[in-house]
Write a structure and sequence with these properties.
The structure is a homodimer of 193-residue chains. Chain A is α+β, with helices and mostly antiparallel strands and 193 residues long. Chain A has eight helices and six strands, in the order ααβββββαβααααα. In chain A, helix 4 packs across helix 5 and helix 7 crosses helix 8. The structure holds a DNA duplex (30 and 30 nucleotides).
DNA sequence: CGAAAATTTGACATGACTCAACTGGAGTGG
DNA sequence: CCACTCCAGTTGAGTCATGTCAAATTTTCG
């Protein structure tokens, strides 16, 4: 559980009491593979800090194709930001890819803490700033790069879990079909020699 | 200048003194069309609040193709977030599309104000939260939708300036070539009758 | 008015998709 | 522990969306 504290301490200094208050605002939960943490039409009530395991955040379009927005493993955050921030029903899904342990915080608890401990609002501001930068970079990658290059960036972004993910999920992250991904991978392997 | 105050007041309440301090932290500037506010390799020293006119934020890939990350008109913010937040050299450009007036704030001034007036850090947190949501939505649109649909979303996102932008810039925002954009637009016009 | 830039248009090329069939491994129940 | 089923992954043929190249035309602006 101190993984969370470590993470936050990289950006702001908390004293013992504040750390305790922070931890008390989270609920610890266990999830097993294939469980759904969020489905379309539901409100994303909690922001999720992943302690172990892997989550996937995705949405489904009119043609029933899935599109992965992000993966989250140890030390990363997950949540449908639109729904979590507005507390309105969202249109995305969060599923468990590998058995996971996570710390969950409701928006209300979060906002209370921001009032009580401004340093935590600062931490969150920094967290969101960084997410925004990462997202903008990914957007540019998608505009500029062909699938093959995007795959290489993906490998760099998720070095710890790249071998634990089903190919179809990687394909849906890259924005291509599983069939095309399979062919592309075959081509890359052949080219390596 | 009170456009800025109006904007901020939608999320936090400031008293006269705080408003003044906020305004003092910005510099007012005038720009004319085609001026560059930021070029590759430079540090994005200031966060920009557009009072009037239009800016475009873009980057250029290895094939020299431009990719527009965003447009900014009256009431919107602009800046290379990666560079502004880290104060390291960035890889993007900001140009003036239509003569503009803007308020500029350095990262240092901004951080000082966060310490002095926590409400402003809150405002900024909310601003970034919203940017993040908008960005994630655009990312999903790019993964899911064909160019034609993306164009419709673009029209909804920029209703005020959609007729003031060169087609090549719209194309580079959508992630397609100007030629293809031209053909697509022709097709859409013909279909309308 | 003239030069440069933006837009349009057409022929052709290609990256990525669809559909369909096949293979193989993981999980489940008998 | 086997047999069965069910996904995930692979592969091939044909197609479609979008790109490239090149030339003609229109617009912008000094």
């Amino acid at each position: 559980m101190s993984l969370l504290i470590e993470n936050i301490s990289r950006f702001v200094d908390l004293d013992r009491e504040e750390e305790q208050e922070l931890l008390d605002s989270f609920t610890f939960r266990n999830f097993s593979a294939k469980e759904m943490l969020l489905e379309e039409g539901e409100v994303c009530k909690e922001h999720i800090f992943v302690v172990s395991g892997i989550l996937r955040h995705y949405s489904i379009d009119e043609e029933l194709a899935e599109h992965t927005l992000s993966f989250a493993s140890s030390g990363w955050w997950a949540g449908d930001m639109y729904s979590f921030l507005s507390q309105k029903p969202g249109d995305s899904y969060i599923e468990v890819i590998e058995d996971a342990e996570a710390l969950m915080q409701t928006r209300q608890k979060q906002l209370e803490l921001f009032d009580r401990i401004p340093k935590l609002e600062r931490f969150y501001r920094i967290l969101i700033e960084r997410s925004l930068v990462a997202n903008q970079q990914r957007l540019m990658e998608n505009l500029q790069l062909p699938a093959e290059e995007r795959y290489k960036r993906f490998l760099e972004r998720y070095p710890d879990i790249k071998y634990n993910l089903p190919q179809k999920d990687i394909a849906s992250y890259l924005g291509i079909t599983p069939q095309f991904f399979s062919k592309m991978k075959g081509r890359l392997l052949r080219e390596e020699y």
